[in-house]
Amino acid sequence: QVQLKESGGGLVQPGDSLRLSCAASGPNFGTYIMAWFRQAPGKEREFVTAITSNSRQTTYANSVKGRFTISKDDAKNTVYLQMKSLEPEDTAVYYCAAREGSILYRTQDRYPWGGQGTQVTVSS
Question: How far apart are CA 37 and CA 81, in angstroms?
Answer without folding.
Answer: 11
